[in-house]
Amino acid sequence: MIPGPVALLTRPLLALAPVLALGGCADEDARPDQPRPLASVSPSASVRTSPSEAVDQPTAAYLAWLGALEDREAGTACRLQHPERTIALRYEAILVDRAELGDPCIGFEALLWEDPLREYSPVDVETTRLTGEKATLAVTFPDSSVTVELELQRAAWRVLSEQRRTPASPASAQWLEVWCDLEVGSTRAAVVGAMGEPSGEYTVSDGGEPQVYWAADQYDFRAYLDPVDGTVTDLLGDYDALAAADRSLLDCPELR
Prior knowledge:
- The structure is a single chain.
- The strands form two sheets. This protein has a four-stranded antiparallel sheet. Strands 5-6-7-8 form a four-stranded antiparallel sheet, covered by helices on one side.
- The protein is of the alpha+beta class.
- The protein has nine helices and eight strands.
């Protein structure tokens, strides 16, 4: 965890931005075939850092990216974000007549800092997943919280996406409380009775695997159903974006 005003960390970490960005500017022939991965932890682990500990590299990359946005440094922000994020942002810019196909990132990066809901000073950052190539952060700001996905691309961590997080609610508390009590072989009625009304359902006629699911941003729990008798064949929960407090309530594997 990074408690307290993390804004104090953001400025010093701006010094890392050129270093992090250079990974994306090096000559193609000089790059190794495969980037050297960081020491990885279990994808199901949740990593928190105290004020006296150095933040992990994905967190440093995200804070540097936020700092570049706050300072309106489009070039630095563009280098610190994943190419897929840039492509998605370009399409957003096209829709509001701020860009055309092929326009460089620096021409429309301003859309990110023009967002009236954008915040720059996290009060808490938790690494909920860290592997050699992917990282997920749960980031809390004074007035909002987001799930941040980063990928190691061309030997540097780059911001891939940000998604709003859902505050804890009676519904999510119920999901966490009963999820690990569900059993393969149960009826659809039994799992719905335990978990509550599902967020949605797929049937064979929808063209996918029959399932009922309970999902809201970082929460995602799915019960796959036998297409013949409707009993549960698999239970799948996505724990990657769950904070440590939520994850501690789940003592069953993600796939059963």
